[in-house]
Design goal:
Layout: H1 2-24, E1 28-32, H2 41-52, E2 58-62, H3 64-73, H4 78-87, H5 90-93, H6 105-111, E3 116-120, E4 131-133, H7 136-145, E5 153-154, E6 163-169, E7 174-178, E8 180-181, H8 183-190, E9 195-197, E10 200-202, E11 205-209, H9 211-214, H10 218-223, E12 228-233, H11 247-258, H12 263-268, E13 272-275, H13 288-304, H14 306-316, E14 339-347, H15 351-361, H16 366-371, E15 379-380, H17 382-394, E16 401-408, E17 411-418, E18 424-433, E19 437-448, E20 454-462, E21 466-474, E22 483-497, E23 500-521, E24 524-542, E25 554-566, E26 577-588, E27 593-594, E28 597-598, E29 600-612, E30 617-629, E31 640-641, E32 653-654, E33 663-664, E34 668-680, E35 684-696, E36 708-719, E37 722-731, E38 738-743
Parallel strand pairs: 1-2, 1-12, 2-6, 4-9, 12-13, 14-17, 31-32
Antiparallel strand pairs: 3-18, 5-8, 6-7, 6-11, 10-11, 14-15, 16-17, 18-19, 18-38, 19-20, 20-21, 21-22, 22-23, 23-24, 24-25, 25-26, 26-29, 27-28, 29-30, 30-34, 31-33, 34-35, 35-36, 36-37, 37-38
């Protein structure tokens, strides 16, 4: 008995010593400043603090510091943060573009046609307005990264490390310190740079970047009980008058001056201040090279203060060999792991919208699975969360969409919350080239609030090729999205013959199309369509080959079967994936015959593959062609080649390296092309293209004629406004070089 009592007493003494060791050391806080992309340097500093065995009891931050700090507080260690920021596509994350790869190919193409898109809600104030970027992709990323911590929480009690971040309420210019609430929302509010990102509205507060009031919140860390403060800042040297050269530099200076609030006072009681050199980089430096450099600079700076860090460790009250209990182990791969679903909740959504989502994604509650015992319970991962919110915005036309996972029982409850329905979605695009000069294209999507979603799409192009088009698409939950459209084209086209302009034709084209089968699967689209075309020729200039005499107004009826597949990782500069399109059509002038004879059959196809031989160099072979069969081939449907894109001037146009303008070729045309794509830096591309083609009046004579050869070289810079660059080329058909300048997306 005495031995047992002694053993218990000794155990208590050992535990008491362990507790005393923990309780008598000083509390350590890490404070991370704001700074946009420059805040990536915080990760490098955290790596060194972990290596040195510095315990972190409190973490506070502002703007990017709130993001790094908030994720660190819920379990991402420095290596996990390093991996996470490197795999993100920041050119997508910091915009409002939708990820259309799992939506229809037509919706996906809009992303690479218009430089600006926004949803408008008439009759209701858009609570997400107020910035050029609404930040929906950032908010969605935070939601996914914070899986398990998305509900309302006490940041001191419920997180692995007590945490706080700062925002600014622009209603009364007051500082708002987040010690509780929804972590993704707090992080999003803290980094809402005025004018760039829309503010976050909570109750009567309109919250923007916390740096305007407290960019380095060491005072909050002290209020939370910190005895030792380690601070990291990423602000550059003060600007002088010579640096004020433009609007952005002036706006940046206004923000930097405001960020001085409390800065000196907070530095005064910082025990170890690490000022990272971020020269050469700005708040928007999110390229892979910039992220690599900034993290490395943070790590190198902290290592240069290694002796100071070890000395500080002794002041904390632990010896050099001390290693803290890892309160923040590497979190599971929350972006790929699947979680069991116990049920679904739909907030601010119509019953029709709920039914649409349940049918499209086969969403079932546990009660359904209990009645169908053979079925595997539903599960969800970040990818499915993203598909759900994208569908809510694209197919159901909600202005905002949110998917939260709330722990419940042995799984999670999926909460789908929608904002206001869009009245319209407005798109705008502009481009310039040295052939057509300036062109503007506007798009307007008008959803109808019906039980089955219906979208009306109006497009207007202004320029040398005037176009107006209206299209209505029905969005049922499965199989097909039937559509009907009507378009007016007013074309002004130059036709060339072996490099010399032969004639110019001006005509109006009316086109109506009904697509009863319009089936979308991932990367894939299948269509069957019936079309009516009417061509009204206004005039023709030139015509040395007698074509002018055959020009007359006429109409046609045609039937089309099309299949498209696109898995490329980029619309203009892919490095992997494939692009395939094939079509068969039958052309008539009375539904069955053409000019009293058999109708014209049109078989066309193109197939391109991308092979990345390194992280910068890609080879892209392509085969394509168009074969026309029948007694007659009307002039508007003859084969044409030239330019860089399929269907740019007329629908049947095929590109060909070395030929800049549009030229007619024979009824049977096939070609091969090899393109080498070299990326230089982050967004610059050098393209080399070789092409060879064969043409003939009949398929059996394809190999009898001279091979058409062409080559071209191009340089492009991939901007947010589309590709900007120039091309030079030469072919043995034209026997002269050509130059082409392009600014913006192609349409």
């Amino acid at each position: 008995m005495l031995i047992a009592i002694a053993a218990v007493w000794m155990g208590c003494m050992v535990n008491a010593q362990t507790v005393d060791t923990t309780m008598h050391r000083k509390k350590v806080a890490v404070v991370l400043s704001g700074g946009g992309a420059k805040g990536m340097a915080h990760i490098g500093v955290l790596k060194v603090l972990e290596k040195a065995g510095i315990p972190v009891d409190i973490i506070t931050g502002t703007s990017m510091g709130s993001i790094i700090g908030g994720l660190y507080a819920i379990g991402y260690n420095a290596n996990a943060l390093d991996s996470m920021v490197r795999v993100q596509d920041w050119s997508y994350v910091i915009t409002d573009r939708e990820d259309m790869r799992r939506q229809s190919l037509s919706d996906w193409k809009k992303q690479y046609t218009y430089l600006y898109s926004t949803g408008l809600t008439f009759g209701k104030r858009d609570m997400n307005a107020g910035g050029f970027i609404k930040g929906k992709n950032l908010a969605e990323l935070f939601q996914q990264l914070c899986t398990g911590y998305t509900d309302s929480l006490d940041f001191t009690r419920d997180l692995r490390i007590p945490f706080a971040c700062v925002a600014t309420n622009i209603i009364d210019n007051s500082e708002v310190d987040f010690h509780s609430g929804r972590l993704p929302q707090a992080m999003r509010a803290s980094m809402a740079i005025p004018a760039a990102f829309s503010p976050v509205r909570i109750g009567d507060m309109v919250l923007v970047d916390g740096g305007l009031k407290n960019n380095y919140p060491a005072d909050i860390a002290r209020e939370m009980g910190a005895d030792i403060i380690i601070g990291v800042t990423v602000q550059g040297a003060p600007k002088v008058a010579e640096n004020m050269g433009g609007t952005m530099s002036i706006l940046s200076q206004i923000i930097d001056v405001n960020c001085k609030n409390k800065y000196d006072e907070n530095l005064a009681f910082t025990d170890l201040h690490l000022q990272v050199d971020t020269k050469g980089y700005g708040s928007a430096s999110f390229s892979q090279a910039a992220i690599d450099t900034l993290i490395r600079r943070g790590e190198e700076l902290a290592m240069s203060h290694w002796d100071d860090i070890i000395a500080l460790k002794k002041r904390i009250g632990v010896d050099e060999s001390f290693r803290p209990t890892i309160l923040h182990p590497l979190r599971p791969q929350v972006m790929t792991e699947r979680q069991r679903v116990v049920g679904y909740s739909f907030e601010n959504m119509t019953p029709q919208a709920e039914r649409f989502l349940r049918r499209k994604f086969h969403l079932h509650d546990e009660s359904w699975h209990a009645a169908h015992k053979n079925q595997t319970p539903d599960s969800i991962d970040a990818q499915l969360m993203h598909q759900l919110t994208t569908t809510m915005r694209v197919d159901l036309f909600y202005q905002t969409a949110e998917c939260r996972l709330v722990p419940e029982g042995d799984g999670v409850r999926v909460v789908l919350m929608a904002g206001n329905r869009k009245s319209v979605q407005l798109h705008g695009g502009v481009r310039y080239d040295n052939e057509e000069y300036a062109s503007v294209q506007l798009g307007l999507e008008i959803p109808l609030k019906t039980s089955i979603p219906v979208n009306n799409d109006i497009t207007l192009r202004l320029g040398k090729r005037l176009m107006a088009k209206g299209e209505m698409t029905i969005h049922p939950s499965s199989f097909t999205r039937p559509a009907i459209s009507f378009a007016f084209h007013r074309n002004d086209v130059d036709l060339y013959s072996e490099g010399k302009r032969d004639y110019n034709v001006r005509y109006n084209q009316l086109q109506a199309e009904f697509i009863p089968i319009n089936y979308d699967l991932r990367y894939f689209n299948l269509q069957y369509a019936v079309r009516w075309d009417f061509f009204h020729y206004r005039n023709m200039l030139g015509g040395e080959h007698g074509i002018q005499a055959s020009i007359k107004n006429e109409h046609f009826y045609s039937y089309h079967a099309r299949v498209s597949y696109i898995s490329e990782d980029d619309w203009y500069f892919p490095t992997r994936g494939a692009r395939f399109k094939a079509e068969y059509s039958y052309l008539t002038d009375n539904f069955t015959k053409l000019y009293g004879k058999t109708g014209m059959s049109d078989v066309s196809a193109s197939w391109r593959m991308s092979f990345a031989l390194s992280n910068r160099f890609t080879l892209q072979p392509m085969v394509y062609g168009r074969l026309l069969f029948g007694p007659s081939v009307p002039l508007p449907f003859r084969n044409t080649i030239g330019g860089d894109w399929f269907g740019h001037y007329v629908e049947q146009q095929m590109p060909f390296a070395g030929i800049g303008n549009m030229e007619y070729v024979d009824n049977q045309f096939v070609a091969v092309q090899l393109q080498a794509q070299q990326r230089i830096g982050g967004k610059s591309y050098v393209l080399m293209r070789l092409a060879g083609g064969q043409q003939a009046d009949k398929v059996k004579y394809l190999l009898d004629n001279r091979v058409v050869l062409g080559a071209q070289a191009a340089y492009y810079y991939n901007t947010l406004f589309g590709p900007v660059g120039a091309t030079i080329g030469y072919s043995n058909r034209t026997e002269k070089p050509y130059f082409f300048l392009n600014l913006g997306y192609e349409f």
